[in-house]
From TrEMBL:
Domain of life: Bacteria
Recorded GO MF terms: endonuclease activity; nucleic acid binding; zinc ion binding
InterPro entries: HNH, HNH_nuc
Protein name: HNH nuclease domain-containing protein
Naturally occurring in which organism (per UniProt): Candidatus Thiomargarita nelsonii
Domain annotation HNH nuclease: ranges: 38-94
Length: 252
């Protein structure tokens, strides 16, 4: 879970349209939130990901559902209020259901910074705060089959790739293989790995956390700096990774 970019409401969703759609919903339960301009804006807000679990919501099995942070069943006047709408996958939206977020708050992915409330350990989320604990419980963010196993797979693959990259840069550093091709391969490989921990990627919080807390990453960065291979693009990517990364739960 990462913090989402706040976007202004779609220009089509004027106050007049909002009132009209709200009245229609109250009258006959019409799904007035399923407007193409609303869906398009929500997908842009989250870069095509669920605001809670970060799975891709443009695939057939995880299609987008418009999530009403304060449930429309309890707060019908907020049915198309832009600040109440979020992009969610079917699983997270269904799991959260009609939980009353006015009475028992959870992390709001736009207003709140998830990293202030959640940490990661052994590919499970742990709370820093009561708000974090409520969020984990209400949205079931530690679903073993759907989420924890996926995070584990991402983490194992990233660790293996970082170890392989460390071997390449070590050979370059000690003079065993210093060709231009090897140099370019090292930089390109790290660039691609770091992109997995940026906002555009699925499960970016997991990937970013693994990257920054893996010892091999700091060793790779040091060797790149020693050989003048660390550049501005990698520096900018690292800032993006830091934005998405969670703290790691203390082992004690």
């Amino acid at each position: 879970m990462i913090r989402l970019q706040h976007l202004p409401k779609p220009t089509e969703l004027t106050d007049e349209v909002e009132q009209e759609l709200t009245a229609r919903y109250k009258k006959d339960d019409t799904s007035v939130w399923k407007k193409p301009y609303i869906i398009k804006a929500l997908l842009k807000m989250s870069t095509n990901k669920c605001c809670y679990c970060e799975c891709n919501i443009t695939t057939e099995s995880n299609y987008l559902e418009v999530e009403h942070f304060h449930p429309k069943s309890l707060y019908p006047d907020k049915v198309v209020v832009w600040e109440n709408l979020l992009p969610s996958c079917k699983r997270c939206n269904g799991t959260k259901g009609d939980h009353d977020t006015q009475k028992e708050a959870i992390v709001h992915p736009v207003r709140d910074n998830p990293k202030s409330h959640l940490t990661l350990k052994a590919y499970r989320l742990y709370p820093k705060t009561d708000l974090g604990q409520m969020t984990i419980n209400v949205v079931n963010l530690n679903d073993r089959t759907r989420l924890v196993k996926k995070r584990f797979k991402i983490g194992v693959e990233l660790c293996d790739e970082l170890e392989n990259l460390l071997e390449l840069i070590t050979e370059y550093d000690n003079g065993t293989s210093t060709s231009t091709r090897r140099r370019n391969r090292i930089v390109e490989t790290l660039r691609n790995l770091m992109k997995e921990g940026t906002r555009q990627s699925d499960f970016s919080a997991t990937a970013a956390t693994v990257i920054l807390h893996e010892k091999s990453y700091s060793q790779i960065k040091q060797l790149l700096n020693n050989n003048n291979l660390w550049n501005n693009e990698l520096n900018d990517l690292e800032k993006e990774v830091e934005f998405c990364a969670l703290d790691v739960e203390d082992n004690e």
